[in-house]
Amino acid sequence: MDEARRTAYGQYCPISRALEVLGERWALLIMRDLIVGATRFNELARGLPGLSRSLLAKRLRQLERAGLVDHLGGRYLLTEGGRDLEPVVFALGQWGARWSFEDPHADELDAELLVWWMHTRVDTTDLPGRRHVLHVRFSDDPRQYWIVVEDGVPSVCRSDPGFGVDLGLCSDVATLYKVWLGRLSLGSALRSGALQAAGATAWTRRLSTILQLSPVAALVPTLRDVTS
Questions:
Q1: pLDDT tens, residue by residue, 142-157
Q2: What DSSP string describes 26-50?
């Protein structure tokens, strides 16, 4: 049976029609990543490690058929309809931040995924030189990561690239997640020692601008307002 027929709700209503397009598992998370800047298949796959590549390809085809995404020259680009989903996706994030965003569960603490997300938000444009290196270590995960920014283009290395490190970060995985997502302020994490930053003063005092937080971090403090 055709998938569109299986997921049809049989109701003439714009909400049910929207759910027929976006109600499939992973569809909204794919749209989230496209909205915040991913355009390549491998970028989407890295940012959604629980999603198989075959299902990702299937969902992208569905979104393309629905007119939300264009596949051009190996890139997935949002159409006008896709871009119009941005306030919807961020409204869901705001609701989640207020009503369902508690401390992370153990199975949500993926260090590699966190570093992958972080590398998309590193901004070293105000620092001299064409290459900048951030070293990320975790006190409760043996893996180490290097974020290398060359000519403004960031990449993630899982082994030492052999370049000098400009800034080192160390914390447990949960703490860095909380900082990245706005549940714990960067200043509080640094003052308590839960997050440690090492490097030249020019780097450490600019940490908040070099490492920009998640695009949804600004929504998360509303949770503190509700629970305080």
A1: 999 999 999 999 999 9
A2: THHHHHHHHHTT--BHHHHHHH-TT
Distances (CA, A) of 54 to 1, 57, 128: 19, 5, 42
Which of 193, 143, 201, 125 has the alpha carbon at shortest distance from 167?
Answer: 201
Per-position b or e across 91-103, b if 16+ CB within 10 A of its CB:
eebbeebbeebee
- pLDDT tens-digit readout, 40-55: 999 999 999 999 999 9
Question: Cα–Cα distance between 70 and 55 in angstroms, integer?
Answer: 18
Residue 228 tokens, joined:
């305080």
Crossing angle of helices 173-180/111-119, nearest 10°? Answer: 30
Token look-up 């006190």 returns 139
Q: Among all chains, which residue has been given the structure tokens 């893996």?
A: 143
Q: Where are the beta strands (DSSP E) in 50-207?
A: 69-72, 75-78, 131-138, 141-150, 153-157, 167-171, 195-199
The whole-angstrom separation of Cα 91 and Cα 85 is 10
What pTM, to 2 d.p., does this model score? Answer: 0.89
Q: Which domains, ranges and CATH numbers included, belong to the chain? A: 3-84 (1.10.10.10), 106-223 (3.30.1050.10)
211 DSSP β-pair partners: 122
* Token pair in block for residue 111: 């260090």
